[in-house]
Amino acid sequence: MTPISQTITLETGTGALPARLYGSRPAKGFAPLVFHLHGGAFTSGNLEYGAYISGILAAAGAVVVSADYPLACEHPFPFALTALFAAVTDVYRRRAALAGRGAPLYLAGEESGGNLAAGLAMMARDQRSPPIAGQILVSPMLDPSLATASIRRADAGSCGCKWADGWQTYLGSPEKAAHPYAAPLASSRLGALPPALVVSAEDCPMCDESRRYADALASAGVPTCVHILPGPTEWPDSISCPAPKPAAWSSAMRDLFRDFFVSTRPASRSGRLKADPAVL
What we know:
The protein is α/β, with parallel strands linked by helices. The chain has a single domain (5-261), classed as Rossmann fold (3-Layer(aba) Sandwich). 31% of the residues lie in helices and 17% in strands. The chain is built from eight helices and eight strands. The chain has helices spanning 51-59, 79-93, 95-99, 112-127, 149-153, 162-171, 207-219, 250-264; strands at 5-11, 16-22, 33-37, 63-67, 105-110, 134-138, 196-201, 224-229. The longest helix has 16 residues, at 112-127. The chain starts with a strand and ends in a 16-residue tail after the last helix. 49% of the residues are buried. InterPro entries: AB_hydrolase_3 (IPR013094), AB_hydrolase_fold (IPR029058), GDXG_lipolytic_enzyme (IPR050300), Lipase_GDXG_HIS_AS (IPR002168). Pfam families: Abhydrolase_3 (PF07859).
């Protein structure tokens, strides 16, 4: 069961961005505030695509702002990333009203949304604002070369594959693949990024690039936790297509998210982190 949500809008400087708010501001203290981005291979998806993961994040104790970003079909890189950076800055300004004074801000996303979350973490580091407490990357799309073993096992990566076409549409031109904000796995400068939780599944095409990015972050000194769920999960498609009842991995995801919030929570006695078992 997905928590009741409400629609809000976020300011980007070039127009309002629709978003859904999951969870509620606690009566006392604060909750983790998560800026979440759905999947869809950069070229599809909407707020419904992000409902399931947003629900699990909320079940782990967070207030979640799930944003509907501009798709690459009409707006290739870096349009969506630029708009989302303005949007997450708006979320940070409103954090007291959304999740309580002092609420730590997290970035989260699955598949293409995981790519955007990773890119936003780099932008926030480089611009030194807004402060990001952590990044949660669920089977992120990070490598436009599509040459990993897990991609090959999925019979993906060739022309006509939705991820290959999604990358081509998102990048617009081959040289964009060298930009670290567009393809984070190729970045040679990963130090000073916020702590990361990287989650994938054994049967997910993005499993190998998820592992590689987690290893690269850890090698750069970034506190990183990687967790690979056993299959079958039918990721990443099943993430964006909520089942009538929770999948077997939902409770494991909730626990991973909750533990990550606890491990990265700022020192304060006023914060609260309480999962709602009725959500899952």
